[in-house]
Design brief:
It is built from nine helices and two strands. By secondary structure, it is an all-alpha fold.
Length: 235
């Protein structure tokens, strides 16, 4: 089983695709929930309330995370399957054209070679029937490429859905530990998001062999822009 998974992953470059989806969507999930947390946080800053019920924050965050999970999984699976079907059709067309060119150049080459080697006269009609039967059997039989593509579609869909879900849950950790969220609870949550962003930036820099600091700065910049825009719109 493990050998099959390794083979499928090598054919479709599964781990590179899954890694890209995981990082991007985990980051998206955190920033989405960050926007929700900022809305509650600004209520506290304005002095309307000193605390907010943690259950309210948790339910709102989990609801958004579930939406991202469903949309990410279903959207990724459908788009991956459509893309693979398109590539498969183009491949079959190219193979058919190539085969047609070979047959046109010398349609009886294979037949004549068999006759010379075996000294047996083979009827063309019987040969064509066998050829058609063989082609039909090949169409019915799933190739390794087909299985690998299907396996990749499923794995990528799971990763694409679960990564924003868990990315949305991570900022909610402090709210599971307290009944009423205060100013410092939100600050702790923002600090957790910042740490995760730094880790993701480090990971991206490591796998791409680019500047780790550059990747961290780019991701932190988006984090700060989100906070700034939210404050400008909600204050």
């Amino acid at each position: 089983m493990l050998e099959k998974i390794r083979t499928y992953a090598r054919i479709t470059k599964l781990w590179a695709i899954a890694r890209r989806y995981f990082v991007n969507n985990f980051y998206d999930g955190m920033l989405t929930v960050l926007g929700i947390l900022l809305g509650f946080f600004i209520v506290i800053i304005n002095g309307n309330q000193t605390t907010i019920e943690s259950n309210l924050v948790i339910l709102t965050g989990i609801g958004s995370s579930i939406s991202m999970f469903v949309s990410g999984m279903s959207g990724s699976y459908l788009s991956e399957r459509a893309e693979q079907k398109k590539m498969k059709m183009e491949l079959h067309k190219a193979m058919a054209l190539n085969k047609l060119d070979i047959d046109d150049s010398n349609p009886f080459l294979e037949l004549s070679e068999i006759e010379k080697a075996m000294l047996i006269k083979i009827k063309k009609r019987r040969l064509l029937r066998r050829k058609r039967a063989s082609e039909e059997n090949q169409k019915k039989t799933k190739t390794i490429q087909d299985k690998a593509e299907r396996f990749t579609s499923i794995v990528v869909a799971i990763v694409n859905g679960s990564s924003p879900f868990f990315g949305g849950l991570v900022p909610l950790i402090p709210f599971f530990l307290i009944e009423a969220a205060t100013f410092f609870t939100f600050i702790t949550s923002f600090f957790i998001i910042l740490i995760c962003i730094i880790l993701l930036g480090t990971f991206l820099g490591f796998i791409s062999k680019e500047s780790i600091v550059k990747n961290i700065i780019q991701m932190v910049f988006a984090f700060l822009v989100t906070i700034l825009i939210s404050f400008l719109l909600l204050l």
